[in-house]
Amino acid sequence: MNEEFDVLIVGAGPAGSFAAERLALGGARVALFDGRPEGEPKACGGGVTAKALKAWPHLLDAVGRTVRELELYSPSGQRLHLKLDEPFAIYSRIAFDSYLRDRAQAAGAEVVSQKISARAISRTANGWSVQDASGATWSTKFLVAADGANSGIAKKLAGPLAAADMEVAFGYRAPLPEKAEAPTVVAFLPRWVGYAWAFPRLDHISFGIATTQEDFDHKALDELMWQFMVGYYQQRENIKAKMWSNVDTDAARAIEKNLRATAERYAARIPGLADKTWDKRRASGENWALLGDAAGFADPVTGEGIYYALRSAELFAAAFLEERPEEYEARWRKDFGGELRRASQMRRRFYGNFWGAPFTERMIEFARGHRGIKKVLGDLVAGEQGYVDLKRKLARKVLRPI
């Protein structure tokens, strides 16, 4: 069997599915390869920013949870409660990815439940040939890789990324508290680059930590993860404990024992490109393009990549349907490339010192007594506040009367 398509997309996450939907609606014949085993979730917090929800309101039709309040914790444990002007959403990636894949299929894309490796892809006189494990072959003029940060196809087409260009996210899926509400929490790590999160979903909580691959120490960070999780449940049970809790009390040991029996661990690599990498890293070439995480499109400060996955898909689909796919490279660089590069430049400064303490500590400390700074943090969570002028804006707010 040899089927021919205008575009073959490997990877049915947000980037691949959204591109497939847009291309199919525009009249292109598209095959979308979904190689993830059915029911297997992607290791991801599942947060979708207000910026993304405003750009694509139909995302709210996916089954998820809308968040209008957030608890932020400084490295020392100072708490800040935020009521958000612009809500964001939290999804199970099984539900979110399935929703987008189903939309692509309804638009006319052919969904193929096959895992495709880089070794199964070869150039032909007319474009590309893709073969699955059964020997079935697909031909296309244009190949798109949207298969995540570990994409073998991206390595083949654009070259491998260095350790300095990668981050690590890991954590646990755990039960919801039985007798208390489950708040959404983001806590900046003490003595580490990165942050922890507790994102309640409809039937469980996603706990996680994101940090750079260069700073990753599994044993130390896993211990910190358990302190964070135990502290979270202790507070739900009205036990006085810090978010980074001592796990040596009887109550803490009982909570940890229950979690050890029920929590499911996950881990993933995510892109966090270094400043200089943006100069030489290409996301497209002769009859090929990279989308989302496969292209390195994620915020190096937070690891958030869903907005950039969707936006890169939208930009590529538009360029292809206009018969100018070679313009995709210039379009993404003009649209959000500068923003991601600036975030790369700000990463160490964001987690560095500011007026004698960690910047994240000062940021929350000032916001606890200043509504202007609190508003800036709300905009940061919403995806509307960038990093370039963040310190300057916070300093200006501090020096200005409330």
Task: Please supply descriptive tags for the structure shown above.
402 residues; alpha/beta; FAD/NAD(P)-binding domain; 18 strands
Helical percent range? 25-40%
CATH homologous group name of the largest domain: FAD/NAD(P)-binding domain
Number of helices: 13
Poorly predicted runs: none
Helices and strands: which structural class? alpha/beta
Major β-sheet, in short?
Answer: 8 strands, mixed
How many domains, in number, for the residues?
A: 3
**Approximate shape:** globular
Tell me the β content. Answer: 25-35%
Mean pLDDT: 87
**Number of DSSP-assigned strands:** 18
Q: In CATH, what is the class of the largest domain?
A: Alpha Beta
Which architecture of the largest domain per CATH?
3-Layer(bba) Sandwich
Termini separation comes to: 70 Å
**CATH third-level topology of the largest domain:** FAD/NAD(P)-binding domain
Radius of gyration: 22 Å
